Amino acid sequence: MFKLDGEDLARKGQCLRVLVVDDAPDVTELLALMMSHAGYEVAMAYSAPEAFDAARAGRFDAVISDIGMPGMNGYQLAEALRALPGYESTPLIAVTGFTHFEDRERARRAGFDDFLHKPINPSDLLEAVRKLCG
Predict the structure, then answer these.
(1) Which of 133, 110, 12, 121 is nearest to 62 (CA)?
(2) Where do the structural domains in the chain lie, given as residue ranges?
(3) What pTM value is reported for the model?
(4) pLDDT of 24-58, one tens digit each?
(5) What is the CATH number of domain 32-121?
């Protein structure tokens, strides 16, 4: 089991509403559980188009997304979010099994602010969100 670090990390930063995106339901739910236990309000999406629709319908303070998804992938989602009014500077965090340098660079070009490898260390994810949210 993972240990979350003390107080609500959500209150230390400015991000309160987080969107978690992954085509693997178990991963989506685990990441959402981590964020929820740390004090964040979490919404889940199981595809990039579903995440984009959720972002258009409501405002999220950060987005945590897988990259390797069928159809619209995480790179395309990041590019679409960056073009969406209100999401130009929203923290985007890639959580992926892709581990090559080229993948990291492509993620940055697409608009991701941070890049974490699966399997994810909960402390690393929470620290990335806290760092990017202030």
Answers:
(1) 133
(2) 32-121
(3) 0.90
(4) 999 999 999 999 999 999 999 999 999 999 999 99
(5) 3.40.50.2300
